[in-house]
């Protein structure tokens, strides 16, 4: 089953919750919607499910217009942020409920409940009530119930956000294995770049009700078409500097000049924005051609195996992320090294011109 | 400000305690230094909130005493303990201005106007709230509101400690970095004792000088981020800290090596000695970061099948099958990615041994 949205808008009390959304989700595809809180992720899922009706535009399933068709008449399952279970049903009956409603014979129900419970490690607690389970277990039950029916569309709205960090990591891995086995179109929303990367597949980056970029997840990460997408798809935040290119030579502020080199010499003279990911800044020189960024340490963070150093350069807030522990005192001088070939170059308007991997944004299906 | 001493604390929510496992908090004996930045880290149900409530006075422990400096505060209610608390969701007076929200804890305690004005402005400057001081709280965004909440916790100079209960859970990832940096800066400037409760290892590790890891009512380890990462006292710490957690495989001692299935892994003298004298179930642990993986044969390397590669942006996680166990290795973004076969080696300095889940050292 393929899902298509054509110029969909959702306007609530004069406010555009969704603006001109066009999307095509192929059968069996895994799709992540990445965006900050209130970017429109949930509104979009509700339209896909048929829980809400778009103000304008069409929703098509396999080319058939289903705009306005009720969720009850669609083949869809949804998992919400808040774990929703039937409080008076046991775990077994919670998981079995979608099949019971549709009149599947008892022994088939049992074998399918057991299979799904196995996938989600719920076998030991099938006789318990949801209230006797931890948050993580309750969300597993909700996910198991959503998986029971072989729906064409499986929607998950930040399903792990209320769970412990470590549980998220485990469940995410389990979910991937489960998604791989299904033919449904899977749509999964998140605010976290790292979660999007782990899920892989395709990504839809959203901001303020609009689609910023779509494409293969790893490809969009390495070729964010706009400054906005780069910011949304970076954790720790990507660094941006304002600079100029004259005759292939880059200057950023008073202190940083980088000699003429490809591919920057293909750009006409003028002002540009230079983006560099925190893990492409180093505290030690990596190669002769590295440029030096000198500053003083504002904050340094150690997470056990990695170092994050925050500083300012040319008025911009910068973070450096390096593997290994390198403790630097606040207020001490540092030199950060960067290979200019790792620069993303954006126009002043924020459109990608050059990316380090040489990927053109077009390849990532730019919008 | 004062040192906080938890003297042989234990707590059960049941009135009649029959067995040791009925304690939500087992035996806790811990001293929190004045001016330290601490994190209480653990999964849901590990007892971290119970411990926090005992420090703040919301709960009286079944056993033991709580002391702030020389004062025994075990019997004192929260309002008499000089503790400030910041919660997961901002607790604000929506109709009051930001200034008055920040000033509230001071006005309440009868400080003079001039002092209040000076202190509120100082805290507002650090938190970059100066431009909105005269605005009402209700019109502001989630991050600004949580900043005000943090500010209300920080505004009193006379508190013994400030307790943060998952303060950044509702904040978007990019803003988390900003707010966490602010907290670090504040700690650096104001030298307050900060206790930060979280289930998020990254928040705990980057924020705190010392992390207290809790598991099933026990403190399983107290240490610096580096100590927890490099020498996890317990398998739980190895698993919980680091993403992904430590790799563990069952092993046996064999001369100057350890055996995993058919593979003999050379170890240093100290490790060999530990393995030989170990009792209980012996396991080897190694961090994904330190497991070496190569796309071409290397001397002393073990040939393994690659089960999967996960692109995580700044790095990749490679899963391999080693003697029937899955091991994960972390490689840098630009490292060559192994295809179906790879060779792994175990650097001697990063091999850790665990007997019955406890680190051998």
What does this entry look like structurally?
The complex is a heterodimer of chains A (367) and B (361). With 367 residues, chain A is of the alpha+beta class. Chain A has eight helices and 21 strands. In chain A, the strands form four sheets. Chain A has a six-stranded mixed beta sheet, with helices on both faces. In chain A, a hairpin with a 5-residue loop joins strand 20 and strand 21. The model of chain A is unreliable at 363-367 (pLDDT under 50). Chain B has 361 residues and is an alpha+beta fold. Helix content of chain B is 26%, strand content 32%. Chain B has helices spanning 48-56, 98-108, 113-126, 142-154, 173-190, 201-207, 225-230, 235-240, 269-277, and strands spanning 4-11, 25-32, 37-41, 63-68, 71-72, 83-86, 161-165, 194-198, 210-215, 218-223, 247-250, 252-254, 257-260, 263-266, 282-286, 292-294, 302-311, 315-322, 325-332, 341-345, 352-355, 358-359. In chain B, the strands form five sheets. A six-stranded mixed beta sheet of chain B has the order 6-7-8-3-9-10, with helices on both faces. In chain B, strands 16-20-17-18-19 form a five-stranded antiparallel beta sheet, with no helix packed on it. In chain B, helix 2 (98-108) crosses helix 3 (113-126). Chain B is globular and about 75 Å long. Chain B starts with a strand and ends with a strand. The model of chain B has no long low-confidence stretch (mean pLDDT 91). Chain A binds chain B through residues 36-37, 134-136, 164-167, 169, 191-194, 197-198, 200, 217-218, 221, 231-232, 234-237, 277-279, 298-299, 301-305, 308, 310, 319, 321, 323, 325, 330, and chain B through 43-45, 142, 172-174, 177, 180-181, 184-185, 188, 199-202, 205-207, 225-226, 228-230, 239-245, 287, 289, 310-315, 332-333.
């Amino acid at each position: 089953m393929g899902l298509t949205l054509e110029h969909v808008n959702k306007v609530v009390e004069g406010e555009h919750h969704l603006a001109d959304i066009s999307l095509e989700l192929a059968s069996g595809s895994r799709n992540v919607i990445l965006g900050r809180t209130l970017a429109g992720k949930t509104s979009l899922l509700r339209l896909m499910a048929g829980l809400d009706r778009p103000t304008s535009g069409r929703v098509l399933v396999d080319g058939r217009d289903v705009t306005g068709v009720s969720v009850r008449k669609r083949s869809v399952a949804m998992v919400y942020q808040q774990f929703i279970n039937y409080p008076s049903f046991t775990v077994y009956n919670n998981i079995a409920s979608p099949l019971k409603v549709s009149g599947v014979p008892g022994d088939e129900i049992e074998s399918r409940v057991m299979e799904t419970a196995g996938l989600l490690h719920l076998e030991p607690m099938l006789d318990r009530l949801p209230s006797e389970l931890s948050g993580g277990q309750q969300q597993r039950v909700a996910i198991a119930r959503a998986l029971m029916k072989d729906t064409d569309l499986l929607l998950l709205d930040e399903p792990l956000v209320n769970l412990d960090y470590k549980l998220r990591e485990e469940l995410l891995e389990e979910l991937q294995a489960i998604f791989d086995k299904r033919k449904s179109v899977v749509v999964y929303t998140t605010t976290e770049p790292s979660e999007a990367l782990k899920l892989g597949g395709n990504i839809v980056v959203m901001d303020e009700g609009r689609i910023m970029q779509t494409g293969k997840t790893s490809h969009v990460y390495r070729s964010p078409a706009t400054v906005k997408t780069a910011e949304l798809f970076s954790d720790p935040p990507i660094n941006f500097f304002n600079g100029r290119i004259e005759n292939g030579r880059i200057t950023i502020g008073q202190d940083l000049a980088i000699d003429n080199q490809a591919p920057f010499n293909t750009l006409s003279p003028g002002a540009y924005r230079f983006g560099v990911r925190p893990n492409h800044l180093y505290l030690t020189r990596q190669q002769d051609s590295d440029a030096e960024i000198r500053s003083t340490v504002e904050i340094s963070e150690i997470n056990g195996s990695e170092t994050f150093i925050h500083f300012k350069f040319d008025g911009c807030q910068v973070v450096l992320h390096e593997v290994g522990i390198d403790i630097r005192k606040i207020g001490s001088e540092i030199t950060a090294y960067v290979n200019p070939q790792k620069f993303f170059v954006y126009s002043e308007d924020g459109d990608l011109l050059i990316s380090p991997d040489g990927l053109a944004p077009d390849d990532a299906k730019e919008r | 400000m004062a040192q906080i001493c938890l003297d042989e604390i234990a707590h059960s929510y049941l009135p009649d305690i029959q067995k040791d496992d009925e304690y939500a908090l087992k035996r806790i004996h811990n001293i929190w230094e004045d001016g330290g930045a601490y994190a209480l880290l653990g999964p849901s149900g590990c007892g971290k909130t119970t411990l926090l409530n005992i420090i703040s006075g919301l709960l009286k422990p079944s056993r033991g005493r709580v002391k702030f400096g020389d004062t025994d505060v075990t019997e004192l209610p929260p309002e008499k303990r000089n503790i400030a608390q910041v919660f997961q969701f901002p607790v604000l007076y929506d109709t009051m201005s930001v200034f008055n929200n920040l000033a509230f804890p001071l006005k309440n305690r009868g400080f003079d106007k001039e002092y209040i004005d000076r202190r509120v402005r100082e805290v507002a400057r650090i938190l970059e709230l100066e431009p909105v001081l005269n605005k009402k709280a209700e019109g502001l965004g989630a991050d600004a509101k949580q900043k005000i909440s943090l500010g209300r916790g920080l505004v009193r100079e006379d508190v013994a400690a400030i307790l943060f209960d998952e303060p950044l859970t509702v904040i978007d990832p990019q803003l988390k970095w900003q707010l966490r940096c602010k907290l670090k800066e504040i700690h650096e400037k104001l030298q307050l004792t900060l206790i930060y409760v979280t289930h998020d290892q990254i928040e705990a590790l980057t924020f705190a000088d010392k992390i207290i890891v809790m598991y099933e009512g026990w403190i399983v380890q107290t240490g610096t981020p580096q100590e927890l990462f490099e020498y996890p006292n317990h398998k739980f710490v190895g698993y919980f800290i680091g993403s992904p957690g430590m790799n563990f495989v069952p092993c046996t001692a064999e001369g100057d090596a350890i055996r995993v299935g058919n593979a003999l892994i050379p170890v240093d003298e100290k490790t060999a000695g530990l393995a030989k004298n170990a009792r209980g179930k012996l396991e080897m642990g190694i961090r994904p970061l330190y497991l070496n993986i190569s796309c071409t044969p290397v001397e002393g390397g073990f040939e393994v099948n690659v089960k999967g590669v996960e692109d995580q942006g700044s790095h990749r996680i490679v899963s391999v099958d080693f003697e029937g166990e899955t091991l994960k290795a972390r490689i840098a973004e630009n490292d060559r990615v192994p295809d179906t076969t790879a060779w792994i080696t175990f650097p001697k300095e990063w091999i850790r041994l665990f007997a019955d889940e406890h680190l051998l050292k």
